[in-house]
């Protein structure tokens, strides 16, 4: 049987993109669902491949016969004649492969024009200038694409005429200029190609088809396919679409426009778009005339508007997705030239999902599936007003999303004093430490010049839901002089800046921000997500406020409550420092006894805010030296204090001497000294000496506690076992808080979680402590406690030996931040500053494994942990509380691997809820695929 | 059938320790192989259990009948009568369970003595004093063990008599004193027990048997079993041995002694031991008489000596192991009381193994199996003379074995200058850095006050085979004043100290050391080991000297050649620093070009030293900031340099002024200045400024390169890919050296190994570099290179994705040092200084995983790596080059898991060879076990 190479749009299979190309299939589909599309036909990719394989460079036998047959059908459909000088049929010849490769292959417009048909076109359009403009463009394009004459030759001629006629741009060219250009162009072709421009329209067509096919192997296309790894099984050869030209510039009953079936900014179910009467699409592009909003058409061309409305309905009913379409009206006839899925912002996506479901256009699954969870971030954080155009002063890492403006302040105390006075401030530091924490509370956002996405600033800001730009290395922070330098610009304290945590940009001045809106539709959609998802979604929350906020986002429990955050609060840090400076266990226990009631109250607050959902509390994790100031800071403080001591000494001695010698002068001096910033009454030498001694002790302790690799150091359970009184205090606080809530009738489900466990005996040792204290609390409070006991799985060894560990643990929670560091042997802070960007640029890693879970490596260990853990305890509850818990692709993996829940920062909870639903949809699809 | 509870030594099954206890079984065995053992019998552990379970506290029915029957046999065998006042049979009643529990259960001697038989004993021995001494001891022991009267009561009586007779110690007591004591003791019993001391010998025996059985449940025994986790399936109940007493003090034809069947110090095949004529064992213990060497017996008692020689032969032929035995001669009859395997030093073990094999006593396998590889260390390193008694000044970690004495020096330059002058020096530092390396070469050993077993000092010293004590925290090193403080003692530069790398002890003064001996027997033994082993043994060696030395130890290849060691040598470090300070790639390449010929020469040397065996070369691994001095040191240097600059400036200015004003004075000044340590001609301001600028750049670079967790930082392949010119230079040096050797007819098998790989693409990227350079070198040198390409497996992810990595790697080498750190999330330096000792004390870890491979965790990952790697490439060559490669238990695991070779530091190669053979023997034994 002879191969069929050509399909009319009425006949081609709209699903067969491989054979017809994307554009061809789309045109077939539109035609067949009853949309008026300019008539035409497709030559298949098979024909292309046959041509490319032909050793003699011939189109396959019989192809041109088929084409001519279809041209005759086109003539019939349009009432025009191909090559007819009176009423010529013009066509476009367009490439189109199975995958979109924008601009990589060739297209020729207005084919069919020659010295005769040009007159027919003038007659058809009544627009001589347009006709010659179309003709000269056709000649250039055809010559370039089909004959290979570079644009330069034509541009030289064009420029010559422009000079001659004094035209500045193409728009200034007159009809006769264009006529002259046409002649010149024909001459260029003759000179360069050593042949005259083909006047025979079939010859034009044959050459054009070959050129389009040939462009598949053009350098651009080949490079593109290599770059984007498009293999022959994905797309092989281009189809060639021959489409009758339609013109929107044929009078006041003609026009052109673009439309969305719904408003892409709000999602409102109304046609959205703009149009121009008596114009071609290129007029819109050239910006000569301003298009009108599409609603105006209802008055101006009511019939056509009705047709357009009809088109909108048909498109949505067929594609079941908001469409972005192009149309042309030729003499009162509406043609749809192209349609594709409309790009919308997140608000519109959510609204249309919910409304299209209620309209019966989408199922709930489809309504969920069409929304990319990652795009929802714009619904949850304030962003910069996109209409405002500003140049960033500097750029750092986008460390915590959201945008904020405020006055620069360079230390936490100043942030607090200004902040409590009602000023909006941005805390700017080289890097932050736990003792800056009160500054975080008082600030709108945080900017640092050092550190990565896991730096103290970044993690704390994310937890608080405040914007943060970290590691903006271009900024030199000079705390001493209270200024920051960016190149040769200086920003002083009090100058207003704006930071954008979504991009990492830092701006001078206040840039308007747009607040997020939590719509009723979003609630509906997320409810559907929850109904679909198998994974639960919890929040990482360290305070009652965090807990309340995360409930609003839909969290059903706390997956990670970090107790060290409580240690960092300004009222506790001094006690924690006392604990660290303790000379023996008694002193340490004394400090811990002061912390106990504070921690207990924290837990009561969190339990109440989260009741009746479970709350997982992680015992102290970081190495304790993190609670001390940096050694370098202590050195500076010591220098200052010593100077202060000397000043105080000298001043006191001087004053005493003077008092003795000359009481009058003494009074004068005393008055002067009273004006000094140092209060001599208060700051006597003794006090200064005491402070000095404490700082010296802190320095000494900081040096003793210093570690070569703190990430792998004396922390987590290793610390907890060395100083059991610390964990003892925390466990006591948790269990007493539980007892207190129970007595108040509040339902609580505490889960005690031990960090950094790699050896089953570590977990066993802490369990002894928990059991002992639980008995004690039950006896003293006369309640029955129900507290689960489990562990973080963040040490590689814990994955390998999960079976042993599950004998003791009632639950696991994967800490994929640390697990990723250990699996790759990457210190995150060092990696992100030093080699990770390079690894991503060079493709050694596709993604940053700290953002997107490395499913092969880290995921392989997680899979092992889940399997081994559940072998021991089939109903072992397993979650994840690393940052990956809020990352959609990683959530999908967590679903696949059989976790029970993910836990993430509050604002990412909605994203996680949707991603959890997506995981189920994906799983169902793959099951369906397999069953086919 | 009635249970049989009693076995004569002639009848008991010598292998059934469970039933007869260890001692009982041993006595049966000795008896049955024809040794003369004092006659006796065993009451089984079953009898013990039956007694302990009896609610009425009775011995099982019929037991005493059986016992009496055996007593009658004893009477017959000895010609004495139990309770016979003329010629009494005395017995010992001894406990003995399946497992040795020394001192935990009770034993009674001389049972059978009473007011009548004491006279018979006097008659038998002709020694009244001895008889009463035996009697009073028997009364006290029996009363304590069987009746429960504390020693205190008896001691009070004893002391009273001593005071009365003026005796200072027991030896001073006269016969009549002892007689009086005996009477007093009998009185004590009567008073305390409210009954008289049992005079009936069968009553004595019954009570004694019950007491021995009862001691199984005594507090001491129960605690001991709990402590050492002895469960009932290991030992349940004690047997009770009734043995006729024999006496060595019955005249000049009697005696006692101990012997070894071969010399335990040298292994020489000669009887070794000592004896006393007419004495009991306790005389030896009491130290009253000095025993004679056993050879003296040949003259003194030739007949008995012949019997002893016969005993020696019988023991060795039966036990096929050197025996440590006790004997007593009673009236010319030699009794063997006990025998057990002799404890020997390593030299003797090796010699006896080889000789006993040639004598046909042992098979080669047995000869190998009886030597503990770990004990061989004493054969390989010098040790402190064990006869020298000294108190350590301080103690640190035993970081590199061997012992050495020398003068303290506090910096590497001084070590070099003294060392090259022929002085023996010990380099003492707070911690060492690469720029101390010339000091290592010049020193006998290294002592540091900070850092663990993996510190720079430890690792470098081990590699060089020099002793090192690291992290001796009690020592405060004061480099500035050239002294060290230990408590209030001060050690000045030049004072002689001795360090012992086997114990970590540091001594003041020179302590004699003992040099190791490499015997012919050791060579034979290791040859057998090689014939048996499946694992190959390679050495870690970084220099041609290392390579040569390790060949002497029997290495068949280099498993790890660390190229960074070459960078550290004094002639290269300045070039490496230039490379680090380079402002751009060109400058860096310029520095590398200077390093290239040096590295190439290194490799030529190593290849030649190791030909024809393979040499695995690891490309640069540590982060480059390790090649810069510490920031704190740079700060001090900068301060010094700035001061120097100011001095030079002032001096120059002054000199110039004076020259102008008063030439004569100028000359005088100039002469004075010439005497200063600063050479003003050479050290002009400009030079100082230049040095200063370079140091400033170094500081700046050190700060830029600083990392939070250097262990997980910018190092290994991550560094190699960021600066491909560094790896490029190294690869070029390796391949050019290969080509050079080939042209000289030297057989070389280089293997290029990439460190820190966790991602297959990392390995792929470096391979491109290797392939390109190989083509280049092959073309320019006109040779065909055969170079293998592989990777360290030291990143967890590499284990998980070993299948992917094996697609590129031709070999794997496990780097278990880093792998252990990553698997546990333990930074070794921090862990060993902070919490690992505590973990081992509390039993959370049984061993230090950095010394003994964690077979469950790290081993689990290795197993995964081997399995996945060989799935991809079944013939993948796999080794290990971490420190575990020299640790016997870890080597056994490497064998089990199917590695091809282990690689360890040169001096551990013999240990590894033996351990590799042991692994095979163990495997065979377990296969045999299974087949049974």
Explain what the structure shows.
Two copies of one chain form a homodimer. In chain A, strand 9 (323-330) and strand 10 form a beta hairpin. The model of chain A has no long low-confidence stretch (mean pLDDT 89). Chain A is an alpha/beta fold and 932 residues long. Chain A has 37 helices and 31 strands. Chain A has an eight-stranded mixed β-sheet with strand order 12-22-21-14-15-16-17-13. An eight-stranded parallel β-barrel of chain A has the order 24-25-26-27-28-29-30-31, surrounded by seven helices. A five-stranded antiparallel β-sheet of chain A has the order 1-2-5-3-4. In chain A, 49% of the residues are buried. The longest helix of chain A is centred in the C-terminal third of the chain and has 31 residues, at 631-661. At the A-B interface, helix 27, helix 29, helix 30, helix 32 and helix 33 of A face helix 27, helix 29, helix 30, helix 32 and helix 33 of B.
Placed side by side, the strands forming the largest sheet of chain A appear as 12-22-21-14-15-16-17-13
Helix content of chain A: 40-55%
Count of separate DSSP helical elements of chain A: 37
Rg of chain A is 37 Å
Number of strands of chain A: 31
| Oligomer category | homodimer
- Structural class by secondary-structure content of chain A: alpha/beta
Largest interface: A-B, 49 and 49 residues
Describe the main β-sheet of chain A briefly.
8 strands, mixed
Range of strand content of chain A: 15-25%
Termini of chain A, distance in Å? 31 Å
Rounded mean pLDDT of chain A is 89
List the uncertain runs of chain A. none
Estimate the global geometry of chain A from the Cα principal axes: elongated
């Amino acid at each position: 049987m002879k191969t069929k190479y050509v399909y009319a749009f009425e006949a081609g299979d709209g699903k067969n993109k491989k054979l017809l190309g994307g554009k061809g299939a789309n045109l077939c589909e539109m035609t067949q669902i009853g949309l008026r599309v300019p008539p035409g036909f497709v030559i298949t990719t098979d024909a292309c491949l046959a041509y490319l394989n032909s050793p003699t460079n011939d189109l396959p036998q019989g192809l041109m016969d088929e084409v001519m047959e279809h041209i005759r059908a086109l003539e019939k459909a349009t009432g025009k004649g191909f090559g007819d000088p009176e009423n010529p049929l013009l066509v476009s010849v367009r490439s189109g492969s199975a995958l979109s490769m924008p601009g990589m292959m060739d297209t020729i417009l207005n084919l069919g024009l020659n010295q005769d048909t040009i007159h027919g076109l003038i007659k058809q359009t009544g627009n001589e200038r347009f006709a010659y403009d179309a003709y000269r463009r056709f000649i250039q394009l055809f010559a370039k694409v089909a004959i290979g004459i570079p644009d330069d030759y034509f541009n030289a001629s064009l420029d010559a005429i422009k000079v001659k006629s004094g035209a500045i741009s193409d728009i200034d060219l007159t009809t006769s200029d264009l006529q002259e250009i046409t002649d010149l162009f024909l001459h260029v072709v003759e000179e360069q190609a050593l042949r005259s421009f083909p006047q025979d329209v079939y010859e034009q067509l044959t050459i054009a088809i070959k050129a389009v096919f040939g462009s598949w192997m053009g350098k651009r296309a080949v490079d593109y396919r290599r770059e984007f790894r498009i293999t022959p099984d994905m797309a092989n050869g281009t189809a060639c679409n021959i489409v009758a030209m339609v013109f929107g510039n044929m009078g006041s009953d003609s026009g052109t426009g673009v439309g969305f079936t719904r408003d892409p900014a709000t999602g409102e179910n109304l046609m959205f778009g703009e149009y121009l009467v008596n114009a071609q699409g290129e007029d819109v592009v050239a910006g000569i005339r301003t298009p009108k909003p599409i609603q105006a058409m209802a008055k101006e061309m009511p019939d056509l508007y009705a047709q357009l409305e009809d088109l909108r309905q048909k498109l949505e009913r067929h594609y079941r997705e908001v469409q972005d379409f192009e149309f042309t009206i030729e003499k009162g006839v509406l043609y749809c030239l192209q349609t594709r899925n409309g790009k919308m912002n997140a608000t519109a996506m959510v609204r249309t999902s919910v409304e299209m479901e209620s309209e019966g256009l989408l199922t709930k699954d489809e309504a969920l599936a069409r929304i990319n969870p990652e795009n929802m971030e714009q619904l949850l954080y304030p962003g910069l007003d996109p209409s405002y155009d500003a140049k960033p002063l500097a750029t750092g890492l986008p460390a915590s999303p959201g945008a904020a403006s405020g006055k620069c302040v360079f230390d936490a105390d100043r942030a607090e004093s200004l902040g409590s006075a009602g000023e909006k401030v941005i805390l700017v530091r080289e890097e932050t430490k736990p003792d800056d924490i009160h500054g975080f509370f008082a600030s709108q956002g945080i900017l640092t010049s050092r550190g990565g996405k896991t730096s103290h600033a970044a993690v704390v800001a994310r937890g608080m839901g405040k914007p943060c730009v970290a590691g903006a290395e271009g900024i030199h922070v000079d705390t001493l002089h209270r200024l920051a330098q960016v190149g040769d610009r200086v920003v002083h304290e009090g100058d207003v800046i704006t930071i954008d945590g979504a991009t990492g940009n830092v701006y001078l001045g206040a840039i308007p921000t747009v607040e997020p809106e939590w719509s009723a539709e979003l609630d509906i959609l997320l409810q559907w997500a929850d109904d679909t998802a198998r994974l639960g979604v919890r929040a990482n929350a360290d305070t009652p406020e965090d807990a309340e906020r995360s409930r609003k986002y839909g969290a059903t429990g706390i997956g990670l409550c970090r107790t060290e955050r409580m240690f960092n609060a300004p009222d506790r840090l001094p006690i924690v420092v006392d604990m660290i400076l303790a000379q023996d266990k008694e002193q340490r226990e004394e400090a811990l006894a002061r912390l106990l009631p504070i921690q207990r109250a924290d837990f009561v607050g969190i339990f109440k805010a989260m009741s009746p959902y479970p709350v997982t509390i992680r015992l102290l994790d970081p190495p304790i030296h993190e609670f001390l100031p940096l050694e370098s800071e202590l050195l500076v403080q010591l220098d200052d204090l010593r100077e202060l001591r000397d000043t105080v000494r000298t001043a006191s001695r001087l004053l005493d001497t003077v008092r003795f010698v000359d009481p009058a002068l003494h009074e004068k001096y005393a008055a002067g000294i009273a004006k000094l910033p140092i209060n001599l009454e208060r700051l006597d030498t003794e006090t200064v000496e005491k402070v000095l001694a404490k700082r010296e002790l802190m320095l000494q302790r900081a040096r003793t506690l210093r570690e070569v690799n703190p990430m792998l150091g004396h922390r987590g359970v290793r610390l907890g076992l060395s100083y059991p009184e610390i964990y003892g205090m925390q466990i006591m606080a948790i269990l007493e808080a539980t007892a207190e809530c129970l007595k108040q009738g509040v339902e609580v489900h505490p889960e005690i979680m031990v960090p950094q466990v790699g050896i089953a005996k570590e977990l066993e040792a802490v369990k002894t402590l928990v059991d002992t204290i639980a008995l004690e609390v039950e006896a003293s409070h006369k309640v029955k406690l129900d507290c689960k006991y489990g562990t973080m799985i963040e040490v590689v060894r814990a994955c390998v030996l999960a079976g042993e560990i599950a004998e003791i643990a009632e639950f696991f929670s994967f800490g994929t931040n640390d697990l990723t560091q250990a699996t790759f042997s990457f210190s995150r802070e060092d990696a992100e500053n030093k080699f990770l960007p390079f690894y991503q640029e060079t493709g050694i890693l596709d993604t940053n494994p700290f953002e997107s879970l490395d499913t092969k490596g880290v995921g392989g260990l997680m899979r092992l942990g889940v399997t081994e853990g559940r072998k021991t305890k089939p109903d072992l509850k397993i979650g994840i509380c690393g940052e990956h818990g809020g990352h959609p692709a990683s959530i999908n993996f967590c679903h696949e691997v059989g976790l029970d829940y993910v836990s993430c920062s509050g604002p990412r909870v909605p994203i996680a809820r949707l991603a959890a639903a997506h995981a189920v949809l994906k799983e169902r699809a793959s099951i369906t695929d397999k069953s086919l």
